[in-house]
Design goal:
Layout: H1 7-10, E1 33-35, H2 37-43, E2 46-51, H3 61-74, E3 79-83, H4 87-99, E4 102-108, H5 114-122, E5 126-130, H6 134-147, E6 151-152, H7 158-164, H8 166-175, E7 181-185, H9 190-205, E8 213-219, H10 224-227, H11 249-259, E9 262-266, H12 268-282, H13 292-302, E10 311-316, H14 345-352
Parallel strand pairs: 2-10, 3-4, 3-6, 4-5, 7-8, 7-10, 8-9
Antiparallel strand pairs: 1-2
Helix pairs in contact: 3-4, 3-7, 4-5, 7-9, 8-9, 9-11, 12-13
Bound molecules: ligand F0G.
Amino acid sequence: AIQWRGVIAEYADRLPDHVQTHVVTLGEGGTPLVPAPALDRRTGAHVLLKVEGQNPTGSFKDRGMTTAMSAALHHGARAVICASTGNTSASAAAYSAAAGVTCAVLVPDGKIAMGKLSQAVAHGARLLQVDGNFDDCLVAARKLAEAYPVELVNSVNPDRIEGQKTAAFEIVDRLGDAPDVHVLPVGNAGNITAYWKGFVEYAVDGPATRTPAMWGFQAAGAAPIVLGHPVTEPETVATAIRIGNPASWDRALAARDESGGLIEAVTDEQILAAHRVLSREVGVFVEPASAAGVAGLLMMAEQGRVPHGARITVTVTGHGLKDPQWALRTPDGSEVRPERVDPDVVSIVRALGLEEA
Ligand code: F0G
């Protein structure tokens, strides 16, 4: 096909039948692997970015939402619910609009980025701000879905994982085999679970001869898996991964250990520094949480722990326009204001410091 048809049509033979009877798609998946010479230089590896911000709603969640929403229609659901730090709610709202079902989202009060909030509202979701954090929202959403006729579309829903594993397939299909290392940010730990499932399936009976080491990175203020215990008050600028008690904790540990990988923490400073490298030297604009994987990779390089010449893929999970405020801050935290000039060439030349030709 000339046009990418969405992950259910493209990977039909590797997805369950029940997501294929009432397919809800917005053309998700088929995202590019973008070379990042600036990261090659810093790491001594060959780094490719899987740019998931190019999905329909601007994050990787769409891969799992096409499958979860299609399954919901198959089950005859009329309403769906999710807890979210923002991207899941944006995706659920858009796919609910496409499916013609009612969508309710629970988000932590005041801690969700404006772009994501506006998406959920624009697509007509019932948005409730909960006086609590993401973990509180998820507990409530799970209880609700047990007691009422609404389908839960968080990543604890196995159909979400099925859809999200297609990103691993795309990487192997493009490279011809699995990379040496796959790097990604970890929040509720659904995505690392999904990538690992995809890489394993492709190594068992697909085109891959091996699986990559999985390197996951949490934000230091929200790093329960690294610390080995839940964090009751998670804090980080990377609001998407501000999560203290990840639902797929065990499966993240399994992915780490079975793959010979690691899960470590990066500070907000490291996240914002990586965000700047991606913006200024690679040309890829991401939201802060999406820079956590790159921050981790750069930290590993500084510690001399990146194998020379390794082929490394890094998922950058969400688009920069979701949460653009960080681009308008200098490293010392002050606000960037556009320079004003008069509308004449002399003023503009002077402002830019141009020499005469
Ligand atoms: N990056 C972004 C941009 C995210 O939105 C999330 C999760 C993650 C990384 C972490 O992925 O949870 O599968 O480990 N966002 C969820 C949400 C929690 O509600 O949008 P994970």
